[in-house]
Design goal:
Elements lengths: L17 H35 L7 H59 L28 H10 L1
Length: about 160
Amino acid sequence: MSTSSSGPEWSGDMLNKPEMVEAFATQLRGVLKAQAAYVSDIRSDAEAMWRQNRPEGYRTFEAWWRHRWVCSPFGEIQEHLEQAAALTFALEARYRRGRHEIPAARRAAALEKKQARQTPQVGAGDGAVPPKPVQAPTAGPAGSGDFLDLVNQERSA
């Protein structure tokens, strides 16, 4: 951990709010997509250069083999970066469900159970009341900023 005052020091408490995780995932997704585009550019340049500047003396199979060894890693790296960017959606959804939606549903069920114990049963034919659906927390006006902007706002408050 860096001790310089150039930015906020990282702690897990920064991801306690859904809008913070959303901003973090969006920013991470953008960085991963930019890196994938960069690798894609390098890969397309390498493939074009190889096609136009084949070394003399190589047979067809040997040229194909060397091309594969030069360009294949770029494709694999690009694929991994694109998969990582796609996983940020799962990160955001898993966090929202695990830290907010599921606990809110459990609290609502526990509250309803507690109220049912406190309220006497009036009718014998009434069925159990299903729990009310829990809405996912929505990001307020602060949800549109970058992750670090939200962290700085929270620290200054």
